[in-house]
Design goal:
Blueprint: H1 20-30, E1 42-46, E2 49-52, E3 57-60, H2 63-66, H3 75-87, H4 98-110, E4 118-122, H5 125-138, E5 152-156, H6 165-170, H7 174-177, E6 187-190, H8 195-201, E7 206-211, E8 214-215, E9 221-222, H9 225-238, E10 241-245, E11 269-272, E12 283-287, H10 290-293, H11 309-324, H12 327-343, E13 348-354, E14 357-362, H13 367-377, E15 379-380, E16 382-385, E17 388-391, H14 399-434
Parallel strand pairs: 3-15, 5-6, 5-7, 7-10, 10-11
Antiparallel strand pairs: 1-2, 2-3, 4-12, 8-9, 11-12, 13-14, 14-17, 16-17
Helix pairs in contact: 3-11, 4-11, 12-14, 13-14
This protein binds pyridoxal-5'-phosphate (PLP).
Length: about 425
């Protein structure tokens, strides 16, 4: 049968007469409920804009949770993906491909990795962290012949490293962990940003310390440069690995390739994903220097899809566009404008973050209602906490687009306060009825 005889089955065509509520009814009877009810059914995107099934336009200030580095449907990335898929799409890791090798070299260059450094490709952030977890397990020998094995892995309170079992063991949130215990053992969580607590926790049984330079899921909480340096010093002294999870903060999100650059330290490993493929799933573990890079040996880890030609071509295209189109400078300029503007808005109590990873707190528990009010006003934002909003827009966001959100924000806050008050009144009436 010739391929030209194939036509799209009705189920896969993107253009449809169905409304958002038609789709959501079908969603709830066909998709597992782990994500709750999706906020909207999105059908199309261009740059920092997306449109829903009912034709409404939104400025996407979340970027698929810090993923769509170049926005939606970037013409260059799209054409590179299409032509790579039309040339060679998948080969397995029994084979390699030019794009895989070129991307590994590129990642070693942008992370300023020293000689002997290496890359392992995965398909997501959690998978990159699984690989890092196994790397940490291989750093098992203590300093002396008779010393205890290294079994301890240190992570921080508030940490989010993913949802698969190893990454989940590193993740701090009890609600995510408890239903799945027992998790892989040996992980301890220590207070966030407390250098003394870190020094006290690291000893000769420590295999690794995992840190996010800015905790994204916890509400955009940055670690200080001093903390990162102290972590480097203490892990080096104890022979433990310092592993930086830059899944959310890396690839230009903060206006630098890595958020940890300012600390001037060389970690033992960095994990990357999210923005790396410009929307195409790809993750990576970069190991720094020869000793760390040879901890995982042939057969000790693997993946079918990881590092396939399409994913690595997508990432190469994304990195090339970021580099050649002045995107990092844009991130710094628009991020600074956004943060300065946010500080002037009534009801905003604190603004955090770097580049285009921005968190801000409001003075009441209205953040979830702000997400709803923002959607009504045509903006996609996110609330990682009851008083916290996170923005992680495409890195190509313009000043004008950032300002359109700043202009709308007072109205969004007002609408959210009204929505919250109305739902509290409804809840107290229901409680009275039940008495
Ligand atoms: C810092 C960090 N690590 C790991 C992950 C997990 O990545 P993924 O959802 O691609 O598995 C995330 C996702 O939010 C993250 O923010």
């Amino acid at each position: 049968m010739s391929h030209t005889e194939l036509s799209h089955p009705a189920e896969t065509t993107l253009v449809s007469q169905s409304t958002g509520s038609d789709w959501l009814a079908r969603y709830s009877s066909s998709l597992m409920g782990v994500f709750g009810t999706p906020q909207r059914v999105l059908v199309r995107g261009a740059g920092a804009l997306v449109w829903d099934a009912d034709g409404k336009e939104y400025l996407d200030l979340l970027g698929g949770i810090a993923v769509n580095a170049l926005g939606h449907a970037h013409p260059f990335v799209t054409s590179v993906i299409a032509s790579q898929l039309a040339t060679l799409g998948h080969v397995s890791n029994f084979f390699t491909s030019p794009t895989q090798i070129a991307l590994a070299e590129k990642l070693l260059a942008i992370t300023k990795a020293p000689a002997g450094s290496k890359v392992f490709f995965a398909n997501s952030g959690t998978e990159a962290n699984e690989a890092a977890f196994k790397l940490a397990r291989r750093n098992s020998e203590g300093p002396g012949a008779k010393s205890a094995k290294r079994t301890k892995i240190i992570a921080l309170e508030g940490a989010f490293h993913g949802r698969t079992m190893g990454a989940l063991a590193l993740t701090a949130k009890e609600a995510y962990r408890a239903p799945f215990e027992p998790l892989p053992g040996g992980v301890v969580h220590i207070p966030f940003g407390d250098i003394e607590a870190l020094r006290a926790a690291i000893d000769e049984t420590t295999a690794a310390v995992f840190l996010e330079p800015i905790q994204g899921e916890a509400g955009v909480r940055p670690l200080s440069v001093e903390y990162l340096r102290a972590a480097r010093e203490a892990t080096t002294a104890a022979g433990a690995l310092l592993i930086l999870d830059e899944v959310q903060t890396g690839i230009g999100r903060t206006g630098k390739w890595l958020a940890s650059e300012d600390a001037g330290i060389v970690p033992d490993a960095v994990t990357l994903a999210k923005g790396l493929g410009g929307g195409f799933p790809v993750g990576a573990l970069v190991t720094f220097g020869e000793p760390t890079s040879s901890l995982l040996t042939a057969g000790q880890h693997g993946t079918t899809f990881g590092g396939n030609p399409v994913a690595t071509a997508a990432a190469l295209a994304t990195l090339h566009a970021i580099e050649s189109q002045g995107v990092l400078a844009n991130v710094l300029a628009v991020g600074a404008r956004l943060r300065a503007g946010l500080s002037d808005v009534g009801g905003v109590t604190e603004v955090r973050g770097e580049g285009l990873l921005v968190g801000f707190d409001v003075d009441a528990d209205i953040a979830p209602a702000m997400v709803t009010a923002a959607l009504d006003a045509g903006f996609i934002i996110n609330s990682p906490g009851p008083r916290t909003i996170r923005l992680a827009p495409p890195l190509i966001l313009t000043i004008e687009q950032a300002e359109s959100f700043l202009d709308a924000l007072p109205g969004i806050i007002k609408a959210a306060a009204a929505l919250t008050a109305a739902s509290q009144t409804a809840a107290s009436l229901t409680a009275k009825d039940a008495q």
